[in-house]
Amino acid sequence: MAQKAAKQQAARNTSILKRTHLISLAVNAFFILLRLLVFRTSCTRSTYLLYGLLSAPAFTIEFWFERIGRPVIAASGELKKSGEDLEAKALTEYMWDVLYWTWGCTVVTTVFGDKAWWAYIVVPLYSIWLAWTTFGGMKQGMLGMTGGGDTEGPTNGSMSNRQKKMEKKGGQKMQYR
Questions:
Q1: Which of 60, 114, 123, 124 is 20 to 30 A from 93 via CA?
Q2: Lowest mean pLDDT among 58-62, 71-75, 166-170
Q3: How far apart are the first and last CA of the chain?
Q4: Three-state SS for 72?
Q5: CA–CA dist 167, 75 (Å, integer)
Q6: Is pLDDT larger for residue 101 or for residue 151?
Q7: From the CB of residue 91, how many other CB atoms can be counted at a distance below 10 Å?
Q8: What is the predicted pLDDT for the residue at 66?
Protein backbone atom coordinates (compact mmCIF):
# COMPACT_ATOMS: atom_id res chain seq x y z
CA MET A 1 0.00 0.00 0.00
CA ALA A 2 1.63 3.21 -1.17
CA GLN A 3 1.89 6.13 1.25
CA LYS A 4 0.22 4.26 4.11
CA ALA A 5 1.77 6.52 6.77
CA ALA A 6 0.80 9.67 4.87
CA LYS A 7 -2.79 8.46 4.50
CA GLN A 8 -2.98 7.65 8.21
CA GLN A 9 -1.57 11.08 9.04
CA ALA A 10 -4.12 12.74 6.75
CA ALA A 11 -7.00 10.81 8.34
CA ARG A 12 -5.77 11.63 11.85
CA ASN A 13 -5.35 15.34 11.02
CA THR A 14 -8.81 15.52 9.44
CA SER A 15 -10.32 13.96 12.55
CA ILE A 16 -8.43 16.30 14.91
CA LEU A 17 -9.39 19.40 12.90
CA LYS A 18 -13.05 18.40 12.76
CA ARG A 19 -13.13 17.82 16.52
CA THR A 20 -11.32 21.12 17.16
CA HIS A 21 -13.75 23.11 15.02
CA LEU A 22 -16.78 21.51 16.66
CA ILE A 23 -15.51 22.20 20.17
CA SER A 24 -14.65 25.77 19.23
CA LEU A 25 -18.10 26.27 17.71
CA ALA A 26 -19.78 24.86 20.82
CA VAL A 27 -17.73 26.95 23.27
CA ASN A 28 -18.16 30.21 21.37
CA ALA A 29 -21.86 29.62 20.69
CA PHE A 30 -22.32 28.84 24.39
CA PHE A 31 -20.72 32.17 25.31
CA ILE A 32 -22.68 34.25 22.82
CA LEU A 33 -26.07 32.61 23.42
CA LEU A 34 -25.85 32.63 27.21
CA ARG A 35 -24.56 36.19 27.26
CA LEU A 36 -27.32 37.38 24.94
CA LEU A 37 -30.20 35.38 26.42
CA VAL A 38 -29.51 34.64 30.07
CA PHE A 39 -26.96 37.17 31.33
CA ARG A 40 -28.16 40.07 29.23
CA THR A 41 -28.19 42.59 32.08
CA SER A 42 -24.52 42.04 32.96
CA CYS A 43 -23.41 42.20 29.33
CA THR A 44 -21.62 45.39 28.34
CA ARG A 45 -19.46 46.55 25.49
CA SER A 46 -16.37 45.63 27.50
CA THR A 47 -17.68 42.05 27.77
CA TYR A 48 -17.56 41.62 24.01
CA LEU A 49 -14.30 43.57 23.75
CA LEU A 50 -12.63 41.23 26.26
CA TYR A 51 -14.17 38.22 24.55
CA GLY A 52 -12.82 39.28 21.16
CA LEU A 53 -9.40 40.26 22.49
CA LEU A 54 -8.82 37.16 24.63
CA SER A 55 -10.34 34.72 22.14
CA ALA A 56 -8.15 36.01 19.33
CA PRO A 57 -5.23 33.70 20.23
CA ALA A 58 -7.52 30.67 20.06
CA PHE A 59 -8.92 31.75 16.69
CA THR A 60 -5.41 32.41 15.39
CA ILE A 61 -4.12 29.02 16.58
CA GLU A 62 -7.15 27.25 15.14
CA PHE A 63 -6.60 28.98 11.80
CA TRP A 64 -2.91 28.04 11.90
CA PHE A 65 -3.72 24.39 12.63
CA GLU A 66 -6.18 24.41 9.75
CA ARG A 67 -3.56 25.87 7.47
CA ILE A 68 -0.71 23.47 8.31
CA GLY A 69 -2.68 20.36 9.21
CA ARG A 70 -5.39 20.06 6.56
CA PRO A 71 -4.53 17.35 4.00
CA VAL A 72 -4.40 18.41 0.34
CA ILE A 73 -6.13 16.05 -2.05
CA ALA A 74 -5.79 16.39 -5.83
CA ALA A 75 -8.79 16.48 -8.15
CA SER A 76 -8.06 12.86 -9.07
CA GLY A 77 -8.49 11.86 -5.42
CA GLU A 78 -4.78 11.32 -4.86
CA LEU A 79 -3.23 12.57 -1.63
CA LYS A 80 -0.80 15.38 -2.46
CA LYS A 81 0.10 16.43 1.07
CA SER A 82 -0.90 14.86 4.38
CA GLY A 83 -0.33 17.99 6.45
CA GLU A 84 1.91 18.54 9.45
CA ASP A 85 1.55 16.34 12.52
CA LEU A 86 -0.90 18.08 14.86
CA GLU A 87 0.14 15.81 17.73
CA ALA A 88 3.79 16.88 17.59
CA LYS A 89 5.69 17.99 20.68
CA ALA A 90 7.22 21.38 21.46
CA LEU A 91 5.50 24.41 19.90
CA THR A 92 2.46 22.50 18.65
CA GLU A 93 1.91 21.07 22.12
CA TYR A 94 2.16 24.55 23.64
CA MET A 95 -0.37 25.86 21.09
CA TRP A 96 -2.82 23.12 22.09
CA ASP A 97 -2.37 24.14 25.74
CA VAL A 98 -3.20 27.77 24.90
CA LEU A 99 -6.22 26.68 22.87
CA TYR A 100 -7.60 24.48 25.67
CA TRP A 101 -6.98 27.14 28.30
CA THR A 102 -8.74 29.77 26.18
CA TRP A 103 -11.76 27.53 25.78
CA GLY A 104 -11.81 26.89 29.52
CA CYS A 105 -11.61 30.60 30.30
CA THR A 106 -14.42 31.30 27.84
CA VAL A 107 -16.71 28.75 29.51
CA VAL A 108 -15.87 29.98 33.02
CA THR A 109 -16.39 33.59 31.95
CA THR A 110 -19.74 32.71 30.45
CA VAL A 111 -20.97 31.39 33.77
CA PHE A 112 -19.17 33.59 36.31
CA GLY A 113 -18.78 36.93 34.51
CA ASP A 114 -16.05 39.17 33.17
CA LYS A 115 -13.78 38.89 36.20
CA ALA A 116 -13.07 35.28 35.24
CA TRP A 117 -10.97 36.53 32.31
CA TRP A 118 -8.24 37.10 34.89
CA ALA A 119 -7.66 33.34 34.78
CA TYR A 120 -6.17 33.95 31.33
CA ILE A 121 -3.08 35.43 33.01
CA VAL A 122 -1.90 31.84 33.39
CA VAL A 123 -0.95 31.72 29.68
CA PRO A 124 1.86 34.31 29.81
CA LEU A 125 3.00 32.95 33.18
CA TYR A 126 3.14 29.44 31.71
CA SER A 127 5.12 30.82 28.76
CA ILE A 128 7.64 32.44 31.09
CA TRP A 129 7.97 29.26 33.15
CA LEU A 130 8.40 27.13 30.00
CA ALA A 131 11.08 29.47 28.64
CA TRP A 132 12.87 29.55 32.00
CA THR A 133 12.95 25.75 32.37
CA THR A 134 14.02 25.30 28.77
CA PHE A 135 16.83 27.82 29.18
CA GLY A 136 17.84 26.24 32.49
CA GLY A 137 18.02 22.81 30.90
CA MET A 138 20.12 24.13 28.03
CA LYS A 139 22.41 25.90 30.48
CA GLN A 140 22.93 22.68 32.46
CA GLY A 141 23.61 20.80 29.24
CA MET A 142 26.18 23.37 28.17
CA LEU A 143 27.93 23.20 31.54
CA GLY A 144 28.17 19.44 31.20
CA MET A 145 29.59 19.68 27.68
CA THR A 146 32.29 22.18 28.64
CA GLY A 147 33.40 20.23 31.67
CA GLY A 148 31.98 22.76 34.08
CA GLY A 149 31.13 19.93 36.48
CA ASP A 150 33.41 18.60 39.20
CA THR A 151 37.05 18.04 38.26
CA GLU A 152 37.96 15.37 40.84
CA GLY A 153 36.43 12.54 38.85
CA PRO A 154 33.43 10.44 39.65
CA THR A 155 32.50 9.61 43.21
CA ASN A 156 31.98 6.11 44.54
CA GLY A 157 28.30 6.41 43.70
CA SER A 158 29.07 6.66 40.01
CA MET A 159 31.56 3.76 39.92
CA SER A 160 30.51 0.34 38.76
CA ASN A 161 30.64 -2.62 41.14
CA ARG A 162 33.61 -4.02 39.25
CA GLN A 163 35.55 -0.79 39.70
CA LYS A 164 34.74 -0.71 43.41
CA LYS A 165 35.95 -4.29 43.90
CA MET A 166 39.16 -3.66 42.00
CA GLU A 167 39.99 -0.60 44.09
CA LYS A 168 39.10 -2.43 47.30
CA LYS A 169 41.55 -5.23 46.46
CA GLY A 170 44.22 -2.69 45.78
CA GLY A 171 44.49 -3.90 42.22
CA GLN A 172 44.14 -1.65 39.25
CA LYS A 173 43.59 1.88 40.35
CA MET A 174 41.27 3.75 38.10
CA GLN A 175 42.65 7.01 36.87
CA TYR A 176 40.24 9.69 35.78
CA ARG A 177 41.04 12.61 33.59
A1: 114
A2: 166-170
A3: 55
A4: strand
A5: 73
A6: 101
A7: 8
A8: 93
